[in-house]
């Protein structure tokens, strides 16, 4: 808050103050691989049957799409995650079978969009008794 303002101004403007905490902060020149090092242990849980969500949050133009998709020289978190998952499946010597599927959604102005199904329109969060909180109608594709 602007401490140069009087007490009454501070109280009246308190809703404008926002505080955030971060698990990690990255320098401007870091690569997607640098970011991925912090989430890779979570992604490894997929091979043990865990559902994993990788969520990029930020304002328009902040680099969310680049962080998730990346480029040929700096692959994004989705590409790096799939590499890890398929490398782990390839190394698995058990008799387990694996099915890998994914969804790709965007939350924009509190509206959910399916990025794999452009004609889906707005989607809704619902509570499923068997699966917990889900995005109703979200397309899921086998990878």
UniProtKB/TrEMBL annotation:
Which parts of the sequence bind ATP?
58-65
GO biological process terms on file = microtubule-based movement
Q: Which UniProt keywords apply?
A: ATP-binding, Microtubule, Motor protein, Nucleotide-binding
The record's Gene Ontology cellular component field reads: microtubule
In its UniProt record, a GO molecular function of this protein is:
microtubule motor activity
Q: In its keyword annotation, does this UniProt entry include ATP-binding?
A: yes
Q: Which SMART domains match?
A: KISc
From what superkingdom does this record's organism come?
A: Eukaryota
Pfam families with a match to the protein in the record: Kinesin
Annotated Kinesin motor domain residues? 1-143
Q: Which InterPro entries match?
A: Kinesin-like_fam (IPR027640), Kinesin_motor_dom (IPR001752), Kinesin_motor_dom_sf (IPR036961), P-loop_NTPase (IPR027417)
Which family is it part of?
Belongs to the TRAFAC class myosin-kinesin ATPase superfamily. Kinesin family.
| Protein name per Swiss-Prot or TrEMBL | Kinesin motor domain-containing protein
Q: Which organism is it from?
A: Aegilops tauschii subsp. strangulata
């Amino acid at each position: 808050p602007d401490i140069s303002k009087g007490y009454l101004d501070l109280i009246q403007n308190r809703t404008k103050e926002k505080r955030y905490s971060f698990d990690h902060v990255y320098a401007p020149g870091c690569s997607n691989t640098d970011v991925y090092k912090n989430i890779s242990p979570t992604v490894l849980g997929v091979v043990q049957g865990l559902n994993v969500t990788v969520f990029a949050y930020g304002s328009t133009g902040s680099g969310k799409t680049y962080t998730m998709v990346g480029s040929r020289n700096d692959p994004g978190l989705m590409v790096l995650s799939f590499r890890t998952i398929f490398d782990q499946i390839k190394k698995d010597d058990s008799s387990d079978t694996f099915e890998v599927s994914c969804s790709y959604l965007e939350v924009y102005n509190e509206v959910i969009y399916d990025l794999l199904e452009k004609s889906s329109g707005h989607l809704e969060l619902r509570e499923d008794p068997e699966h917990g909180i889900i995005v109703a109608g979200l397309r899921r594709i086998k990878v």
